[in-house]
Amino acid sequence: MRPTYIEINLSAIRHNLEEVRQAVGPERRILAPVKANAYGHGMLQVARTALEAGASMLGVAYLDEAVALRQAGIGAPILIFGSELPENAPEIVHWGLRATLCTYELAKALSQAAVRLRRNAVVHIKVDTGMGRIGLKVEEIREFLRRILELPGIVVEGIYTHFATADGSGDGEFALAQMEHFRRVVSQLRKEGMELPIAHAANSAAVLRFPSAHLDMVRPGIMLYGLEPFPGASYLADIRPAMTLKSRIVFLKEVPPGASVSYGRTFVAGRRTRIATVPIGYGDGYPRALSNRGKALVRGKRARIVGNICMDQLMLDVTHVEGVRVGDEVVLIGEQGDERITAEELASLAGTINYEIVTSLNGRIPRVYKD
Ligand SMILES: *Cc1c(COP(=O)(O)O)cnc(C)c1O
């Protein structure tokens, strides 16, 4: 078998959920976002672990992801974050999924499916308080609720919003303004007798930065995986990365000064250089943007990526690594000896965010679970 794999430490995920619990207190529900293959960590195993550790709901982006969870035997409540097209309503109701609702067309289709299947369609109303992605405007909510509550089979279980800047870009003022809009509309509706059992707003960043946003349920994703929702977040909670990305050296050579490495000859050796080839590339979702920038660990030492990253292989300069051999372990994300390479470090070298680094690692890399 190819020596490249991702190791997922499920106890780290359990620990991180416990950290969320510490931050939000015993009464609040925790929804575990497992969209995008659980941020690259493996949807099923993470879902099971999070539920065992006390999450009461799962969150996915699309219907397909929710159906995959159901087909694997997961019966827990699942909220679909995206706005689904009306044609998907029968499947949503059939699988007993919670839909995010912000269009009347979807409400009508869900109602029809619910009546036909003699079940309820459970929905969470989405309010756009400033994210500008999906959701009803604050001033539209009351009329919308009035209309959909006339539809048979629709049960409104929740109402929620999503922050645009909780990650700390800016001074938090915008996020707090979003929060205020949301709290005002929810408390007004409740005062008028509208039943809205679960109001929720907080992603990971808001779990850590805005206790006033914890409400009835929180939706921490990135933090569950031990990654920072914003720089410095790990000072606010003891979060532990769950993912290690490993491979092994499959080929070693020495090249003379002037020799080039890989496509495009973007690296030319300035001295005698020992080059190691590692079987991982952009075809696995390892970013090509890390060409001549990324680092990996070999025998406890940092080694830099030289030349352009290929689809299936990349090359490291291991001239300074004593005793290096074919078969040596290479850690691309994670710890080895006293050294550590984080998704955050790679993200900053590649000009992206840690979320994209881990979610890009695709199904070609096997996941191995340890507990
Ligand atoms: C992805 C997502 C989350 C989780 O966000 P993190 O920043 O990973 O904590 C929460 N809510 C919604 C609606 C999402 O799409």
Task: Characterise the protein shown here.
The protein is an alpha/beta fold. It has two domains: 10-224, Alanine racemase (TIM Barrel, Alpha-Beta Barrel), CATH 3.20.20; 243-370, Lyase, Ornithine Decarboxylase, Chain A, domain 1 (Beta Barrel), CATH 2.40.37. Helices cover 29% and strands 25% of the residues. It is built from eleven helices and 20 strands. It has helices spanning 10-24, 35-39, 43-52, 63-71, 89-94, 104-117, 141-148, 173-191, 204-209, 343-350, 354-360, and strands spanning 5-9, 29-33, 57-60, 78-80, 98-101, 121-126, 154-160, 198-202, 217-218, 243-248, 251-255, 260-261, 267-268, 273-278, 295-298, 301-306, 314-317, 329-336, 339-341, 367-370. Strands 1, 10, 11, 14, 15, 16, 17, 18, 19 and 20 form a ten-stranded mixed beta sheet that branches. Strands 2-3-4-5-6-7-8-9 form an eight-stranded parallel barrel, surrounded by five helices. Strand 16 (301-306) and strand 17 (314-317) form a beta hairpin. Helix 1 (10-24) crosses helix 3. The two termini are 23 Å apart. It binds pyridoxal-5'-phosphate. Pyridoxal-5'-phosphate binds at residues 33, 35, 81, 162, 203-204, 219-223, 229. Residues 33, 35, 81, 162, 203-204, 219-223, 229 line the site of pyridoxal-5'-phosphate.
What's the rounded overall pLDDT mean? 97
* Rg result: 24 Å
**Strand runs, count:** 20
* CATH topology assignment of the largest domain: TIM Barrel
CATH-level-2 architecture of the largest domain = Alpha-Beta Barrel
User: What is the helix tally?
Assistant: 11
Largest sheet entry: 10 strands, mixed
